[in-house]
Amino acid sequence: MFYKISNIANRESIEKKFHVNFEFPNLYKPQGVIDGLMESTISVITISDPHKAVYAIWGLLPENFEDNWSVFQDVVNTLNVKFETLQNDNGLYMDILEKRRCIILSTGFFTTWLTNGTVERCHVHLPDFEPFAIAGVFNELNDGFITCSLVVTQINESFKDVPNISNLKPLVLNDHELKQWFDTSTSLAQLKQLCVEHRSMKFYYEPYESGHFIIKT
Fold first, then answer.
1. ∠185-198-105 over CA atoms, to 5°?
2. Where are the beta strands (DSSP E) in the chain?
3. What angle do CA 211, 212, 217 make, to 5 degrees?
4. Contacts of range 211-214, beta carbons closer than 8 Å, 24 or more positions apart
5. Is it the case that residue 84 has pLDDT exceeding 80?
6. Does residue 215 have a pLDDT over 50?
7. pLDDT by residue (tens digit) across 128-164?
8. Sign (positive/negative) of CA torsion 123, 129, 134, 140?
């Protein structure tokens, strides 16, 4: 699964691309590696306020949950969720696909593959490390904090050359798909069609070792 992403874009480039303003712009900081297993904060845009970028805790929690994030994640890891689970779940994800969709702002994610008897990591990104939107779902807690999960789906033909031990990948949305994802009139059947037929962007990749990233300014 996908537990690490990167976001090295500067704030201005994100605001320009997605036509948003950050709620707390001075808090934004590019990050070479964001580790979801460490209770990390990531930048998101929600369907309920699509013109504002906000901060969310990566790892979905139930709306009425009041215990520590780590307590819940030890029971069920919600950093990622399969699109199929969102269609069929009657528990934690009930109604979330219809009502609480979001996108996670990113410039890259990390895959893993087996080579020479060891597990290696690969950094996947667009040309020039352009920011892109990963489909997500979110809950808002009683204290106002937002928590979210990254949506994953089956790999398709355009992703087959990227080294990846899994048959899954993050659901990355192009501009047209993003409009559908944020359109409140989009039906569940249309969302399913989007997931099945979505067009993967032209990703580049390189082995990830030292974690050295150029932060864009």
1. 80
2. 4-7, 21-22, 31-35, 41-46, 49-58, 80-82, 101-106, 108-115, 118-125, 132-140, 146-154, 168-170, 172-173, 204-207
3. 130
4. 211/32, 211/33, 212/32, 213/6, 213/8, 213/32, 213/33, 214/8, 214/129
5. yes
6. no
7. 999 999 999 999 998 899 999 999 998 877 777 888 8
8. positive
Chain CA centroid to CA 195, Å: 14
Q: How far apart are CA 60 and CA 147, in angstroms?
A: 5
Q: Is the pLDDT of residue 214 over 50?
A: no
pLDDT at 9 (0 to 100): 97
Kindly report, residue by residue over 101-116, the tens digit of the pLDDT: 999 999 999 998 887 7
Cβ–Cβ under 8 Å, residues 97 and 87: yes
What mean pLDDT, rounded, does the chain reach? 91
- Residue by residue, DSSP assigns 70-117 as HHHHHH---SEEEHHHHHH-SSTTTTHHHH-EEEEEESEEEEEEEETT
Map out the domains of the chain with their CATH numbers: 4-207 (3.90.1680.10)
- Tell me the C-alpha distance between 188 and 39, whole Å: 30
Assess contact for 40 and 118: CB atoms under 8 A: no
